[in-house]
Amino acid sequence: MPIIEAQGLTKTYKVFQKKDGLLGALRGLYHREYKEVKAVDDVSFTIEPGEMVAFLGPNGAGKTTTLKMLSGLIYPTSGTAQVLDFLPWKREDEFRRKFALVMGQKNQLWWDLPAADSFQLHREIYSLPLADFEKTLADLTELLGVQKLTRQAVRELSLGERMKMELIAALLHQPEVLLLDEPTIGLDVVAQVAIQKCLREYHSQRGVTMLLTSHYMRDIEALCDRVLVITHGKLVYDGPLVGLTDRFGAEKLVKLLFDGPAPSDLGRFGEVTKVEGPTVDLKVERTRVAEVLGAILDAYNIVDVSVQDPPLEQTIAKVFQQAEPANVDA
Amino acid sequence: MSTLELGAPRSMYRSVRKYAKIYRASLVERMAYRSDFLLGTVLRFLPMITTILLWQAIYKGGEDSTQAGFRLNEMIAYLLLTNISRIFSSMPGLAGGIARDIREGTLKKYLIQPIDMIGYLVSYRMAHKTAYVVISALPYALLFYVCRGFFDTGWPDLLTWVAYLVSLILAFFVGFYFEVCVGMVGFWFLEVTSLLYIVMTLNFFISGHMLPLDFLPPFWASFLKALPFQYMAYFPAVVVLGKVRGQDLAIGLLGELFWAIFFMMLARTLYTRGLRRYSAFGG
After folding, report:
1. Which residues in chain B are contacts of A97 at CB distance < 8 A?
2. Within 13 Å, how many C-alpha atoms sit on residue A291's CB side?
3. Distance from first CA to last CA of chain A, Å, rounded?
4. Could you tell me how many CB contacts below 8 A there are between chain A and chain B?
5. Closest Cα of chain A to B182: distance in Å?
6. What count of other Cβ atoms lies within 10 Å of the Cβ of residue A46?
């Protein structure tokens, strides 16, 4: 039985169209023009317990809106969703005890107080037994290496440390479903890796179901086997991460090392993306790789050759570009 | 678990316990700011000196004559007592905080956690007030001791004390739920700073904080006494001065209870409606 199920989730926002200039502003006072924007358009998917799923898409694609519907912050315009067998936007306490939402750009901790005080408050809000609470807290602070920082006012912490505290706060009540919106935004690589490590270990220990959005492919590669790609509110891909390259990566990257300076006429085989002394990077259509390699090996002295998928970032960027622009109804 | 807590009573017990614990946790937090509180209290005494001097000048030569039913000493006693009313009814930052939570989206913490925003805020505010009363009790006792000469109507009887205490506690609820209602306006209008400013400035006057409502022409005095604002400063002060007695006292207290419940229900309605709007449009 799926733990998260979305059926035809759609969210339409009415956006007020502000006219230019003073006259336009005045006109807007009595005659307002609205534009309907479909932030999420007929999105359906299911997630099984224990899965770690990534939500990919460019800014404004509808990732956060979907997460907000799944966590019950907003109602869908149409369609429905079930999370842990609850209708999220009914906001029943039973449901709210079992999930957590972490938003990288918003914080929930008391700014002027040590994180420990906020944790204490969480204990009260979720009515957690003291022993469980202390055990979980000790585990999490150790996992993230922040034992010494919980007594420091949150505002004195670095961004990375603060995010770790946010994560601890979100996990204290041991949620069964964890929704993460850009958990590593703005963090340096070290902090990013620490957050990833924590999420991975927590997942393997507790089998929590996670759905996360991120702009960093490193997060996704490190954590998720399955990705949902959403652009312009529509779900365009649902499957394994590796499948993305098969589906959208129409080209392979052929790295060649010549015995001597690289020849200059390689353009006929494909797109030359890099030339550095004897090394050349050549982008070749997938279907032509064998043919091109044969021809090159025949014609030149090659010391080394490798065929790779282009970096995931490039593939993703291409997916985003390929997707049709949204139909905007004025 | 005892066998007494079963079913609905049990969940209610749990709920009460949760908010009681939030109260306690917040109390500990607020006590951390005690020196801040103490300084704030002492600084608040300074304007009182000018007020006393001002009224002494106004009454000059006729200290025993009455203005709108107040002798000079009663007048000063009244103004000192409105400060006690305000300790209970003023809610600094409450409405603005709610509006900010709505505007900046931090409201979502109340939506994703198993907690009710108004319930949380009332626990927090009660803790805040408790801490304030405890910390400022000594400086206030000192102030009233120094100013004891102005309280020349004698020690109030037990009934008056009880009525005074009740009026102060209700003043807290009137003040609290009124401000919550003002804050909820943020669901409909993003910017409420100017509204807040108007409300607060007006409140200083129409609550009787500046001077007793009886100083106004009879029509305006009775008009303002029909509004809820008098309970935030005027009413508790005249109760302890023994100016409202018997039937008037009972009616006054019932009126105060009415407004507390009225704003409580209004706050709840606005919150429910506002959330519906927020969930449909914003988030």
Report:
1. 114
2. 8
3. 41
4. 58
5. 23
6. 14
Q: What is the ipTM of this complex?
A: 0.75
What average pLDDT does this structure show over A47-65?
89
Which residues of chain B fall short of a pLDDT of 70? 1-10, 281-283
Question: Which candidate, A12, A50, A104, places its Cα nearest to that of A328?
Answer: A12
CB-nearest to A72 from B111, B280, B281 is: B111
d(CA B42, CA A191): 46
Note whether B186 and B270 are within 8 A (CB).
Answer: no
Answer yes or no: pTM beyond 0.90.
Answer: no
* Residue A165 to residue A153: CA distance in whole angstroms: 11
What burial class does residue B81 get, using C-beta atoms within 10 Å of its C-beta: 0-12 exposed, 13-18 middle, 19+ buried?
buried
CA A263 to chain centre: 42
Pairwise CA distance, residues A200 & A167, whole Å: 13
The verdict on a CB contact (< 8 Å) between B279 and A13 is: no
- Rounded Cα distance between B33 and B67, Å, is 41
- Please state the φ and ψ torsions of residue B204, each to the nearest 5 degrees: -55, -35
pLDDT in tens, B257-275: 999 999 999 999 999 999 9
Angstrom distance (rounded) from CA B240 to CA B81: 8
What 8-state DSSP symbol labels residue A310?
A: P
The CA distance from B257 to B259, in Å, is 6
Lowest mean pLDDT among A52-56, A105-109, A123-127, B252-256: A105-109
Q: Which amino acid is at A325?
A: P
Report the alpha-carbon distance of residue A321 to residue B11 in Å, rounded: 53
Q: Which residues pair with A38 in a beta bridge?
A: A12
Burial (CB count <10 Å: 0-12, 13-18, 19+), residue B209: buried
Q: What is the pLDDT of residue B282?
A: 59
> How is residue A258 annotated by DSSP?
E
Torsion angle of C-alpha atoms A89, A93, A95, A100, degrees rounded to 10: 90
CA angle B129, B132, B136 (to 5 degrees): 145
